[in-house]
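Annex B. Sample input.
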Amino acid sequence: MHLVPGLGPRLTAALLDRFGSAKTVLQASPAELQEVPHLGAKLAHSIHEAMRSANPAAELELMEHLGVRLLVHGTADYPESLANIASPPHLLYVRGEIQAKDRNAVAIVGSRHCTAYGKRISERLASELTRAGYTIVSGLARGIDGIAHRAALQSGGRTLAVLAGGLSKTYPPEHAGLADEVAAGGALISEAAMRMEPMAGMFPARNRLISGLSRAVLVIEAAEKSGALITASHAAEQGRTVFAVPGPLDSPASAGTHELLRKGAVLIRGVDDILEELEGVKAKGSRVRFEPPPQVDELQRQIWEFLQERPRHIDEIAQGLRLPVPQISAALLMLEMKKGVRRLPGNHYERC
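Annex B, continued. Sample output.
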């Protein structure tokens, strides 16, 4: 049944409710399948033919070749947090291992086209949460997702990546190496059949699993129509806490995040805010630094603030602050030594 395209969790549940078991569903005629509400003659015939032509043996062979196993809804090893959401997957494909400690998880999601600000904050919050004992959950996408996965792994922690398509192909393809690392230090997860291509409509459904696996969802940089906002919406429906990191007021990359804050998301200034919300006590860990490093002079502070939104060329900094380039260059060198900024190719600078 799972290999039938378009036969999602809700329709599968309706069929099982009507016929009692998967075996009985497979034995049903098109006319009998039509007895299920909202299942017309054309769709019933298509499902009947698709079930007859499905090749479970080939699916199982590919799973074995790639080291993928199935978790079945209702069994002991199926994630409890997912079992309790609306329309849970009946089958979950897993490459790697989901451990009991992964119940203590926070999802980190955001823009695929993140700014230097979003990259920096994602790295720091993912690392801090990992060191505090949390598993990081995300979607292996470009931008914030990939950064969060890498930061968790580099901090010696665990991370779970939920894919929209099947596990036989990595999407995006440039994250194939990262996917292997995630599988070794956590798990790759999907509800899609092994060869299923990640179609656009599958990502919102995938997002409900990201939030479902987590105690809370942290949104870092989301534009007005970002998919991260869908994850936040699923989180709210599932009773999960939604956290949001504020960005520059005029940054389009944070427009959706600011809207979440207006609607009641918990504003995050640093990892302590997350730990305090989830654990009920004031955390003693270090904060993500939203202020310049200590012992900077007034010019160094001005430069650091000028680099808030994005990397800038030294000439742009000098022009913006109306100061000569040699003076800006000397201040940038001091900021580099204090780990406040980093130099990029082409004489551009960004905050660390």
